[in-house]
């Protein structure tokens, strides 16, 4: 199903001003109007949205594609959302897909299996399958598969980093990170988060003896795709030091990496800044777009 989302300039300005006031005042959490509803309510732009394309069997095996109108050889971004590997839905991130498409990129947002339906590495297997689908079908939407970037927020940034750093997940699809991923964008990702203290995460990631194999920081080698790692300094959900440590490890291996730490931003506002409602908080979207567009194909 295809939709074109647009709004007149007067309505757009009213939505932006009203929504920003509500969000920044903390009034959007009252139950009357959720923050995501506000962000998605102004997800307008000259793009085409194709929903619920199957990349794998099952209810969590679908994805949405946001394509700029008349796109030709556009960069491709596969975005993985977060939710502690337990929550999330692709429809919640329409504001991310819209922002990327409005910036000239083909954005692909897949669902993937979550706990308790799966545990590590089931969600990585799904994310790899979605990436393989993107490689094979990007051209149908005006995208250049040779300029494919993986991006994620929170747990989704973990998923993206694992695909970019550990070749075993793409290998079953005949792909490799060094050849088939042009770049990695990690937003507030957990990349080096041992020891585990949360009982559910202990169940998701398995026995203590194998936990080192679940950490992206342990798979850094020379030749990894260029990376942009971003975090907010006020993030109390995922320690920003995760991004700092991974950036340091990548740099030591000779891999291109950029680190962005945004003063005062917390976990949700980092990704919320993709929306025009919250652009003024920090140039997160502009930094991501700038990084992706300069990546070699």
Could you describe the 3D structure shown?
The chain is α/β, with parallel strands linked by helices and 297 residues long. It has one domain (47-293): Alpha/Beta hydrolase fold, catalytic domain (Rossmann fold), CATH 3.40.50.1820. The chain is 33% helix and 19% strand. It has ten helices and nine strands. It has helices at 9-25, 35-41, 94-102, 122-137, 155-165, 177-180, 199-205, 241-252, 267-272, 284-293; strands at 2-3, 47-54, 62-68, 74-80, 106-110, 143-153, 183-187, 227-232, 257-262. Helix 4 packs across helix 5. The longest helix is centred in the N-terminal third of the chain and has 17 residues, at 9-25. The radius of gyration is 18 Å and the shape is globular. The chain starts with a strand and ends with a helix. The model is unreliable at 1-22 and 24-32 (pLDDT under 50).
Question: What labels would you give this structure?
Answer:
single chain; 297 residues; alpha/beta; Rossmann fold; 19% strand; globular
């Amino acid at each position: 199903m295809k939709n074109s989302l647009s709004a007149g300039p007067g309505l757009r300005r009213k939505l932006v001003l009203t929504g920003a006031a509500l969000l920044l005042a903390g009034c959007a959490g009252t139950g009357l109007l959720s923050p995501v509803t506000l962000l998605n309510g102004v997800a307008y732009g000259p793009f085409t949205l194709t929903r619920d394309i199957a990349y794998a069997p099952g209810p969590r095996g679908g994805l949405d594609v946001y394509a700029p109108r008349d796109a030709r050889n556009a960069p491709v971004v596969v975005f993985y959302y977060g939710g502690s590997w337990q929550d999330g839905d692709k429809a919640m991130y329409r504001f991310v897909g819209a922002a990327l498409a409005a910036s000239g990129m083909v954005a692909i947002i897949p669902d993937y299996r979550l706990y308790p339906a799966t545990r590590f590495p089931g969600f990585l297997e799904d994310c790899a399958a979605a990436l393989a689908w993107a490689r094979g079908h990007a051209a149908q939407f005006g995208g250049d598969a040779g300029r494919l970037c993986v991006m994620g927020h929170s747990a989704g940034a973990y998923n993206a980093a694992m695909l970019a750093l550990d070749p075993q997940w793409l290998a079953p699809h005949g792909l490799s990170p060094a050849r088939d991923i042009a770049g990695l964008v990690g937003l507030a990702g957990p990349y080096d988060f041992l020891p585990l203290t949360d009982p559910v995460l202990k169940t998701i990631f398995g026995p203590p003896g194998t936990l080192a194999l679940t950490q992206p920081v342990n798979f850094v080698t020379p030749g990894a795709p260029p990376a942009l790692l971003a975090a907010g300094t006020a993030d109390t959900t995922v320690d920003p030091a995760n991004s700092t440590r991974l950036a340091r490890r990548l740099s030591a291996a000779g891999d291109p990496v950029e680190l962005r730490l945004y003063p005062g931003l917390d976990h949700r506002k980092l990704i919320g800044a993709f929306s025009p409602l919250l652009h003024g908080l920090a140039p997160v979207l502009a930094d991501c777009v700038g990084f992706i567009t300069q990546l070699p194909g």
